[in-house]
């Protein structure tokens, strides 16, 4: 549950779509992608502080870190009735061909918070910024794609995985260790 407070308490990551460690010399701008935000929050919650530039570099490509979480997640399917329920603090990953294409964090049973969520939800979403969405805004398919979610920009269909908070934080902890 601590992860929920970390996400909702630290929704602004960087400025203008980029994060910079002000203490780093020379500072490097890193794009605030959905995966960067997810890894940033997981690091902050695990270590009780934001990562510095050296730690971000040590962890490497945030998409690869999030992709490594998929194997530890549970595949989510379209609910037969009502909205999809999640465990607050868990990481939600949209997957295509075993690669994380989008990630966000469950901040309530039916609400997620994340970066660059435009096109993933039927209502709203923000590009280059933080937004919250409810799981009833997922665009589930029909027939053969019934248990996949549609993304408008790519015309693609994605599987959903939910990764427990403790597991996701352990993966980030391992990635952050030299």
Structure description:
The chain contains 5 helices and 9 strands; from the N terminus they run αββαααβββββββα. α1 crosses α2 (34-47), α2 crosses α5 and α3 (53-59) packs across α5 (165-176). The two termini are 28 Å apart. Strands 3, 4, 5, 6, 7, 8 and 9 form a 7-stranded antiparallel β-sheet that branches. β4 and β5 (99-108) form a beta hairpin. The protein has 178 residues and is α+β, with helices and mostly antiparallel strands.
Strand proportion: 15-25%
Low-confidence stretches: none
Continuous helix count = 5
Q: Compute the separation of the termini in Å.
A: 28 Å
Order of helices and strands: HEEHHHEEEEEEEH
Number of strands: 9
Structural class: alpha+beta
Report on the biggest sheet.
7 strands, antiparallel
Helix proportion: 25-40%
Shape: globular
Using only C-alpha atoms, the radius of gyration works out to 16 Å
Mean pLDDT: 93
Number of domains: 1
Short description:
With 178 residues, the chain is α+β, with helices and mostly antiparallel strands. The protein is built from 5 helices and 9 strands, in the order αββαααβββββββα. It has one domain.
What key phrases describe this protein's structure?
178 residues, single chain, two-stranded antiparallel sheet, 7-stranded antiparallel beta sheet, 5 helices, 9 strands, alpha+beta, globular
Topology, please?
Blueprint lengths: L1 H8 L8 E2 L10 E2 L2 H14 L5 H7 L2 H6 L6 E3 L14 E6 L2 E10 L2 E5 L14 E5 L14 E3 L4 E8 L1 H12 L2
Antiparallel strand pairs: 1-2, 3-9, 4-5, 4-9, 5-6, 6-7, 8-9
Helix pairs in contact: 1-2, 2-5, 3-5
């Amino acid at each position: 549950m601590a992860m929920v407070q970390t996400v909702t308490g630290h929704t602004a990551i960087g400025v203008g779509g980029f994060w910079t460690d002000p203490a780093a010399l020379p500072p490097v701008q890193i794009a605030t992608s959905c995966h960067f935000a997810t890894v940033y929050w997981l690091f902050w919650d695990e270590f009780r502080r934001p990562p510095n530039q050296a730690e971000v570099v040590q962890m490497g490509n945030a998409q690869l870190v999030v992709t490594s979480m998929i194997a530890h997640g549970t595949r989510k399917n379209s609910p037969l009735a009502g909205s999809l329920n999640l465990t607050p603090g868990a990481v939600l990953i949209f997957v295509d061909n075993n690669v994380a294409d989008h990630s966000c964090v469950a901040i309530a049973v039916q609400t997620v918070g994340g970066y660059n969520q435009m096109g993933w939800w039927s209502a709203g979403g923000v590009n280059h910024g933080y937004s919250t969405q409810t799981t009833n805004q997922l665009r589930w398919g029909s027939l053969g794609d019934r248990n996949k979610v549609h993304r408008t920009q790519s015309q693609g269909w994605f599987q959903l995985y939910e990764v427990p908070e403790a597991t996701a934080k352990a993966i980030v902890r391992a990635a952050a260790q030299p």
